[in-house]
Amino acid sequence: MTSIKPAAILKGEGLPDYDKITPEEITENIPKLIKDLNEKLNKLEEQLGKKLLKENFLRWEDVMPQLYEIGEKLRWSWGVVSHLNAVCNSSELREVHSNQQPKIVRFSNQLAQNEVIFKALSNLKEQGGLKNETQIRIIETELITMKNKGIGLELEEKTLFNSRSERLAKLSTTFSNNVLDTTKNWSLLLKNNSEVEGLPDRALETLALAAKEAGDKAEGGNDPTASTGPWRVGLDLPRYIPFQTYAKNRPIREKVYRAFVSRASHGELNNKKIIEEILDLRNKQARQLGYKNWCEISLATKMADNEEAVEKLLEELRLAAMPHAKKELIQLTECAKRNGEDDDFDLSPWDISFWAEVLRKEKYELDQEKLRPWFPLDQVLNGLFNLCKRLFEIEIEEASDIVPLWHKDVRFFDVKNLDGQKIASFYLDPFSRPATKRGGAWMDECLCRNQKEKDNIILPVAYLVCNQTPPIADEPSLMSFEEVETLFHEFGHGLQHMLTTVDYPQAAGINNVEWDAVELASQFMENWCLEEQTISEIAIHWKTKEPLAESEITKLRQSRTFNSGLATLRQIHFALTDLKLHSQWNEDLGISPDELRRQIAKKTTVLAPIPEDQFLCAFSHIFAGGYAAGYYSYKWAEVLSSDAFAAFEEAGLANQDEIRKIGKKYRDSVLSLGGSRSPNQVFKKFRGRLPSTKALIRHSGLD
Predict the structure, then answer these.
(1) Which segments does the entry list as coiled coil (predicted)?
(2) Residue 2: pLDDT above 50?
(3) Is 197 marked active-site?
(4) CATH topology agreement for domains 8-152 and 373-562+634-699
(5) What is the DSSP string of 639-695?
C-alpha cells in the first residue's frame, strides 16, 4: 500500500515544492494545518499541565523542542505563502493570502496567549531548569513576546486585542497591495526624443521594453526600440531612478516625481486612512499592555534602551550632517546655474537627482550609468563569493538544477566550508518584475539551523531578493554600483543567517537578534564593494573582459561621501518621523500624520516636502513591514557596522594574513553567535569594546 504524500504546502520541512503550490491547495490545506497544530498544542498543554502539577519543575527538553515544532510548521507553511505573495503576486494568490491570514493571526495569538505555555516558560526561568545563557535569553524573549501579545489580559480585553491584531494584519496587507498597485498602474508614454533627452542607452532600452510589453507601437506599427521609441516611464525603481537622474526634460521629471511621491494617496488605493487606523490600533494595543505608546513596545526588545537614547544618536548625526547638507544644496543650485539655468533658479525636489549627477560628473568626472557594463551580475557574484572565501573561509557553488524554483530568474547556491562540508544554501531572485514582485530588496529565512540530534542538523537556507535591472536582449544584467551595494547588503544578512553555529533555532542566525542590531552584518558588507581586491574582481567589462580603470575606481571611492549630508538627513528624517508617529501621534492631537511629518521636516530637511509629497502613504517599512518605531535601526546599526569595518582598516586592508584573522574573529562572533548573546556582548567579543559613532562620521565624510 503506497502512502499518500501530504500536500506541498503542508510538508512543513525541507525546501518547498514551489511548482506544486497553488492558490487552491493553500485554500484547502491551511485550515487543515491549523486544525493539526491545535491538536498538537492541546497535547503539549496536557503533558505540561500534568508535569507542572506533579513535579513543578520543567527542563528545556520538556517544553521547547515541541513548542518550536508547532511554531515552525506554521512559519514554514505560511512563510511559503507570504514569500510567493511577495515574489509572484497575482490576484488569485492575493485573495487567498487575504482570506487565510486571519486564521494564521488567530492561531499565532492563541499560541502566544496560552496560559499553560506561559506558566511552563516562567517555571523554566524561575526554577533553574535552563542550562546556559542562550537558553536564558531565548526564554526571556519568549516571555516578553507573550506579554506583548496579550498573555496577561483578561478574557474580554484579550478578545478585543486579538480582533485588533487581525485587523492590523489585514490593514498592513492592504497597505502593501495599494503601494504595489499604484506603482504598477501609473506610467507615462513618451513619444518624442526631446522627452527622453539625456537618458543613457540602457535606460532607453528598459523604457522601450516597457512600452512594448504595454502593447505600444512606434509610428508605422513597429515595435518600440531604444532609439526610435516610444518609451514608457514608470514608478518602479529600475525605470524611475534613471529617469530622474538623467532626463534633461525638467517638466516631465517634475510630472514623474509628483506621481512617485503621491503614490497610494488618492482614489481607491488611498493609504491615508489606513495609516491613521494602523497608528490608532497600535496605540490602543500598547495601552492595553500597559505601555504608554507603540514606541515603548518596540524598544522593549531593542538594543537601544529608550526613545531618548535613539533621539540622542539621531541628533548627534543630524548636527554633523546639517551644515554639510546646506552646503550641498547651494553647490547643486550653483551647478544648475553654471549649466544654463536662470539666475533666479530655485532648486526643486525633482532637480536633486539630476543636478547631483551633473555635479558628480563635474567633480569626479564620474558617469555611473556608463559603468554598468563593468558590473555584470555573474562577475559581481564571482567577486562577492571570492571575498567571502578570503574573509570567512567558505566556498559557494551554484546548484540551481536540483531544486524547485518559483521563477526562471531564480538561482540556488550551496555554501561549504573549505573542507567541502556543506553548511547552508540560499536562493537568489535578483531582477525587478514590477507587475508581480514587491519592490525593494530583502533577506528572509526559508529554513533555520536546528540541531535536532547529534547527527541530525537542519542546515539554514536563505531567500535573497533584489529588484535590480534585468537582462535585456543579449546583454546580461548590467548593474549600477548602487545595485551592487544592495546585493552585498542583502548577502550580509544572508551570511548571518547561514554561518550561524547556534544549535537552538530560536537564537540561530538573525533570530533573537535585536532589530536595531540586525543591520550590522548587512551594512558591514557594503564597505567591501570598493576594497581593492574585491573591486578588481567584480568590475570587469562583460564584453571586452577589461578591468575597470583605476581612475574610475578612485572616482567611485571619492564620490562615496558625495552629498552624504543630504543622504544622512534623509535617513534621520525617516527615522525621527517613524519614532514620533509611534510615540506622539494620536487622533486627539488635532493634526494628521502627514502634518506631524512636515513639522519634523522643518529640522531634518533642507528642502521642504511639496504639498503632493505623501511619502508616508508608501512607507511600507513601517506600515507593511517590521520597522514600526524601528526605522532608526538602519542608522543605529550603521554605527556598529562602520566601527566593525574600522577593525579591518586599522589592520591594513592589504595585509591579507591580518584580514583573514580578523575575518575569522568576525565570523566567530557577529556571524556565528546570532541571537545567543546580547548585541553589546557580541560586539565586544569582536571589537574588545562597545561601539562608537566616530567611524561612521568619518566614513560619511561628516567629520
Answers:
(1) 27-54
(2) no
(3) no
(4) no
(5) HHHHHHHHHHHHH-TT-HHHHHHHHHHHIIIIIHHTTSS-HHHHHHHHHSS---SHH
